[in-house]
Amino acid sequence: MIDRREFLKMAACLSASFGISNFPGIVNAALKKITPENTPQLIYLQGQSCTGCSISLLQAESPDAVSMVTQYSKLSFHADLSAASGKQALKLIEEYISGDAGEYFLAVEGAIPWAMPEACVIGDKPFADYLTAAAKTMNGAVAVGTCAVHGGIPAAEGNLTDAVSLKEFYKRKGINPLLIDIPGCPVHPDWVWKTIIHLAQVGLPELINGRPKLFFQRKVHELCPRYHDFQQEIFAEKLGDKGCLFKLGCLGPDTYADCPTRWWNGGQTWCIDANAPCIGCASSQFASKKNFPFYRSFEQAMIKNSEDNK
Ligand code: SF4
Ligand code: SF4
After folding, report:
1. What pLDDT digit, counting tens, does each position of 181-239 carry?
2. Which annotated residues bind [3Fe-4S] cluster (predicted)?
3. Of 214, 233, 258, which one is at a domain's C-terminal end?
């Protein structure tokens, strides 16, 4: 974890370094083949999101976020990090999306308000219009986070905007661009940056259900260090107890992600290590139903499952 002071220092450093292609940094051996010439341009746009995924991306460890942004990904625009703002930022985005600025990948964080385009604008134009235009010029798009992949919290039951995922947006438009889904609320920085490195160095990574297989092939439950407790029926009865968290509504059995082996915050911890159930932040169920809160009892989870099976 970085504290606020370190975050501001990093953000200032990132802002200052935008536009400089040869930012010096520690070169990870695995990244030596990447040169300024073959790094893809990346335009990072945000729709209906809380910016949590962007904050998570700044927690990258190896390589660190500054190296990723300035050296390996050629992030040409990000609303929170770019020095460019106002008309200058709009011009930059337009240049890429019109195809005049060369090849690029799009990264999209957040959902898209299908029924209320004016709910999310960049400048005075709906976010949705940028996405429609980008489909004609981009090499592909990476949907960053559960909001972009499944709709997430903006698409929760009762929302007025009919928030949809990037995939659903393009499906409704009848467009079929190359998409890579990286769910998570927030995303793990490795999942995004390493996918982008793969795109730069070797091309499209192997996908499973539209997600990079490397990170989303197996369920949290399958890799969980408490799986043995599950088999032995040693269950936690309340938050903070040791034992399998299944009876506290753990969604590890329904969630594909490699958190148990990757860990979070630079390898310091992860949800179940902190005695908290997996709340399925990378699953399509996340935040979708009013009567299915993040933390729930075993009984609530069973009622929900029986309702779904009707
Ligand atoms: S804690 Fe959750 S993920 Fe781990 S074994 Fe129990 S149910 Fe599965
Ligand atoms: S363990 Fe579950 S809730 Fe925690 S980060 Fe991984 S997928 Fe999300």
Report:
1. 999 999 999 999 999 888 877 789 999 999 999 999 999 999 999 999 999 999 999 88
2. 259, 278, 281
3. 214
The predicted model gives 280-287 an average pLDDT of: 94
Q: Are residues 56 and 115 in the same domain?
A: yes
Residues known to be catalytic = 50, 53, 147, 185, 221, 224, 244, 250, 259, 271, 278, 281
Is 50 flagged in the annotation as binding? yes
Q: How confident is the model at residue 308 (pLDDT cuts 50, 70, 90)?
A: low
Angstrom distance (rounded) from CA 284 to CA 275 = 23
SS3 162: coil
> What is the C-alpha separation between 255 and 244, in angstroms, rounded?
15
Count of structural domains within the chain: 2
The reported pLDDT for the residue numbered 234 is 97
Q: Which of 112-126, 241-255, 296-310 has the lowest mean pLDDT?
A: 296-310
Which ligand sits nearest to residue 256's alpha carbon?
A: 2
171 and 240 together in one domain: no
What was the pLDDT predicted at 275?
92
Verify that 33 and 79 share a domain, yes or no. Answer: yes
Distance 89 CA to ligand 2 centre (A): 34
Residue bearing the bigger pLDDT, 67 or 154: 154
Q: Is 120 annotated as a binding residue?
A: no
The CATH number given to whatever domain includes residue 236 is 4.10.480.10
63 shares its domain with 131: yes
Is the same domain home to 57 and 170? Answer: yes
Q: Are 116 and 153 in contact (CB under 8 A)?
A: no
Q: Which of 174, 165, 129 is nearest to 146 (CA)?
A: 165
Beta carbons of 133 and 100 less than 8 angstroms apart: no
Range of the domain at 74: 4-214
Q: CA 280, 42, 29, 37: dihedral to nearest 10 degrees?
A: 160
Question: Which of 161, 195, 214 delimits the end of a domain?
Answer: 214
Co-location of 102 and 124 in the same domain? yes
